[in-house]
Amino acid sequence: MRVERTNSPEETWELAAGLADELGPGTIIALHGDLGAGKTCFIQGYAAALDIDEPITSPTYTLIGEYKGRLPLHHIDLYRLSGPEEVLGLGLEEYFRADGITAIEWAERAEGLLPSNLLHIRIEADSHTGTRTFHIFRENEA
Questions:
Q1: Burial environment of residue 15 by CB neighbours within 10 A (0 to 12, 13 to 18, 19 or more)
Q2: What is the pLDDT of residues 10-41, one digit of tens each?
Q3: φ, ψ for residue 78, nearest 5 deg
Q4: Are 56 and 64 in contact (CB under 8 A)?
Q5: Whose CA is closest to 121, among 96, 102, 99?
Q6: For residue 18, which of 4, 32, 8 has the smallest C-alpha distance?
């Protein structure tokens, strides 16, 4: 498990950009963390590193945002869904076979439906200092 800390949105973007350089097509990122932890901020930095010019916002109401850059980015937000039974009808399997990067916020709501080769990023925010702690690991490293 890799642990990283950031103290600003800019540092979070830098962390995400570093990961974007390490990860290739077909990567599926499962993002975990409380509301406001920095999941969307992380994806914004990742998207910038992929040369995506469009603004990245939380797709909470549309559930899935698709962006074109040097690799396609599929940004999925499962916040509004209560669990795996609601996720079934979204057709997520299509994104698991995609050539781009798939990033899933609130991934725990699709428990049991996600492939085992996920890169998990668990974000903890310290409300007093503003520090974000990122726990980055694969399924078998948990």
A1: buried
A2: 999 999 999 998 998 999 999 999 999 999 99
A3: -100, 15
A4: no
A5: 102
A6: 4
Please give the single-letter amino acid code of residue 35.
Answer: L
Length of the chain: 142
132, 38 Cβ separation under 8 angstroms? yes
In 3D, which of 117, 102, 24 has the Cα closest to residue 65?
Answer: 102
d(CA 86, CA 89): 7
CB 115 within 8 A of CB 29: no
Interatomic CA distance for residues 65 and 43, integer angstroms: 11
pLDDT band, residue 109 (cuts 50/70/90): very high
Q: How far apart are CA 36 and CA 41, in angstroms?
A: 9
Answer yes or no: are the C-beta atoms of 6 and 132 closer than 8 Å: yes
Query: Where do the domains of the chain lie, and which CATH numbers do they carry?
Result: 8-88+98-110+117-128 (3.40.50.300)
Query: Which amino acid belongs to residue 94?
Result: E
